[in-house]
Specification:
- Helix content is 31%, strand content 21%.
- It is of the alpha+beta class.
- It has a 9-stranded mixed β-sheet with strand order 5-4-6-7-1-8-15-14-13, with helices on both faces.
- Strand 4, helix 4 and strand 5 form a beta-alpha-beta unit.
- It starts with a strand and ends with a strand.
Length: 377
């Protein structure tokens, strides 16, 4: 088996940062009314700025595949061009279409020649699953290099016009229609952007990071879906997919909007997250003392203190001085968040040879968790 190193890392965050007062102007007011949930959600998540692929005139500037293409090109220079990529592996929760696959579309924009591609589906863990496919492909000698990426373009799923048909239906039934909290909640949580890494079998570059191991865990056998799109949740907890609804119903219930069951989120996301972290620690014979930088992807600062408390409760407390977060300034970029976080840590100049970095990525879709353990070379 070969060793695997992250030798380059990049990000692409579109346009100018959007502050809290600009959000509703960018995304639009549903039914012409200001959201009642917005201030509550923003107060809890403590995100101050985020990025949208929407310009000053409200026009879309990039689709998801274009965001990813920009991040991939930001990895490259005259010494390593897009034509040198042997494997492209890209994860996202918000693909531009059902088919072709997300990575196929990214490859189409790159126009860089024939190569292998991989498109893992899912939510936040899809970016890490993209990384793991590249990691294993190099480790087994299938390829000599791999570009892996995570990206989101969720602003297009959150714009007011997505919910217009549903609000019209509600207006016919009641005087003051209010969009359900499980849909409105996510409008104030998510951000657009992309991140990418180059994996190689040699420790090249100014700050190469050796990928020691990656682990993944799913609790779908225990817990029903929490975050979903393209489906409606039934009373028994099962999802009814879009393909089983008449087309005329899709808009009436905002079927393709992202939705989240916040009750399930609060009950499970941290408990299972720490449980799976313990499994990863035990399998690889390490503990909190073997971590110098802890990068947990959290969707909201609401979870920060509670995550620390859960780590402590389950006996794997990680001191605050080891934590590295950038949620406040870049927002929750889903599958791209861990790439953007790692890029900022590397660019900070804080890392020194021998430092050990733990990446911890949850996804609430049906409670999956993915980990990577890196060493600075």
């Amino acid at each position: 088996m070969k060793e695997v190193y992250i030798t380059r890392i990049s990000k692409f965050l579109p346009n100018k940062p959007v502050d809290n007062d600009q959000m509703e102007e960018k995304l639009g007011k549903i039914g012409g009314k200001t959201s009642k949930a917005r201030r509550i959600v923003l107060r809890n998540n403590k995100i101050k700025t985020r990025y949208y692929a929407i310009d000053e005139n409200g026009q879309v500037t990039h689709n998801n595949a274009q965001l990813t293409k920009e991040a991939v090109e930001n990895l490259c220079d005259s010494n390593f061009t897009t034509k040198d990529i042997q494997l492209l592996s890209c994860g996202t929760s918000s693909p531009d279409q059902i088919l072709p696959s997300h990575t196929s579309m990214v490859h189409g924009f790159l126009k860089n020649g024939n190569m292998e591609i991989n498109s893992p589906s899912g939510a936040c863990c899809s970016g890490m699953n993209a990384l793991k496919f590249g990691f294993l492909s190099i480790k087994t000698g299938q390829v000599e290099n791999a570009v892996c990426a995570g990206s989101e373009r969720t602003s297009s799923w959150m714009r007011a016009d997505v919910f217009e048909d549903e609000v019209e239906q509600l207006s016919a039934l009641e005087d003051s229609p209010i969009l359900a909290f499980n849909k409105d909640f996510l409008r104030w949580m998510l951000s657009d952007g992309a991140g990418a890494v180059l994996l190689e079998s040699e420790p090249k570059g100014s700050t190469p990071l050796k990928v020691e191991w990656m682990e993944g865990y799913s609790y779908a056998h225990e817990i029903e879906a929490c975050m979903y799109a393209g489906a409606d949740k039934l009373e028994d907890g099962n999802l009814k997919p879009w393909s089983e609804f008449p087309a005329k119903e899709w808009g009436k219930i905002s079927l393709f909007a992202m939705k989240q069951d916040t009750r399930l989120l609060g009950e499970n996301i941290l408990v299972k997250g720490v449980d799976s972290l313990k499994l990863a620690f035990e399998k690889n014979n390490i503990g909190p003392e073997d971590v110098d930088y802890y990068l947990p992807h959290i969707s909201s600062y609401y979870f920060k203190e509670n995550l620390y408390d859960e780590l402590k409760l389950q006996g794997v407390e990680i001191p605050w001085d080891k934590w590295f977060l950038n949620l406040e300034s870049v927002g929750n970029v889903g599958a791209a968040s861990i790439y953007v976080m790692l890029e900022e840590l590397v660019a900070s100049g804080k890392l020194k040879k021998g430092d050990r970095i733990l990446l911890h990525v949850p996804e609430s879709a049906r409670f999956s968790y993915t980990y990577a353990y890196l060493t600075v070379c």
